[in-house]
Amino acid sequence: MKPDFVIIAVDGGAASGKSSTSRLVAERLNLMHVDTGSHYRAVTFALLQKGVGPDDEAAVAERLKSIPLSTELDGRSARIALDGRVPTKDELRSEAVNNAVSPYAAVPAVRQFLFDYQRAQADIARENNFTGLIMEGRDIGSVIFPDATLRVFLEADAATRAERRAAEGQSDSIEKRDKIDSSRKTAPLTCPDGAYKIDNSNLTLEEVVEEIANAVSNCV
Ligand code: CDP
Ligand code: CDP
Q1: Which CATH class is domain 6-219?
Q2: Strand 196-199 and strand 69-74: pairing?
């Protein structure tokens, strides 16, 4: 039976193509797009501002209580707002946040804090009459939506990923982040069993989008 609401989970390492691919799939299939990396970046930005380090889990948990989260729709993209304000791209992608985000994302209290918020994005997509939701991150197919219609795992070789980030003019230690993300105890970056794996090192964005759209149509 055709599901009336489609959920696509996209996971992969840094600069593996998650955001650009997910945005295009969202357009093609009328899905709401959620970049959960921006959630971890937003929380990191807030905690850095409050001067609470990732090593002090009790203080992090306490501080999180004073960060009200909401969602603002920007076309098909759902943006996280902290205390009613969507952080700017420069705030989320600063070098300080790039360096600190993986240590904060390894703190169980931070992941717990975002779990309900991320699951609830499906309700927002339904309320706004999208055909479904495409959510990208590191643990979407393994933890947040293990019941997704389709789970995709994107890969690209290290040299290609470093070139892509450099071409965007960003200073980002992607290998270091991948190492922390893959080795943490809670919700590590991993390709979940049964996920549809795509190595896109030598594929254009359009080719990857086509492959995902075909895979979805085989699932529904
Ligand atoms: O854009 P890029 O792939 O470089 O990173 P991102 O998706 O913006 O994610 C930033 C960081 O957030 C990652 O390196 C992870 O530490 C964390 N993250 C996570 O732990 N779980 C997710 N579902 C998404 C991001
Ligand atoms: O979200 P994530 O960090 O996984 O990667 P992204 O920001 O979507 O992609 C990083 C860069 O690689 C972007 O500039 C994309 O346009 C580019 N890219 C590409 O050239 N070919 C692909 N098949 C996928 C991404």
Answers
A1: alpha beta
A2: unpaired
pLDDT digits (tens, 9 = 90+) for 98-113: 999 999 999 999 999 9
Angle at 16 between CA 15 and CA 21, to 5 degrees: 105
Shortest CA distance to 107 belongs to which of 179, 11, 187? 187
Q: In terms of Cα–Cα distance, which of 176, 213, 171 is closest to 6?
A: 213
In whole angstroms, what is the distance from residue 32 CA to residue 157 CA? Answer: 28
Ligand 2 atom with minimal separation from the 207 CA: 23
Residue 11 phi/psi, 5-degree rounding, is -125, 160
- CB of residue 15 inside a 6 A radius of ligand 1: yes
Ligand nearest to the CA of 35: 1
pLDDT class of 1 with cuts at 50, 70, 90: low
Query: Is residue 213 within 8 Å of residue 131, measured between CB atoms?
Result: no
DSSP string, 50-107: HT--TT-HHHHHHHHTT--EEEEEETTEEEEEETTBPPPHHHHTSHHHHHHHHHHHT-
- Cα gap 184→67, rounded to integer Å: 24
**In this structure, what token pair is assigned to residue 96?**
């300080």
Domain chopping of the chain, boundaries = 6-219
pLDDT digits (tens, 9 = 90+) for 143-172: 999 999 999 999 999 999 989 988 988 777
Q: Is 34 in the pocket of ligand 1 (CB under 6 A)?
A: no
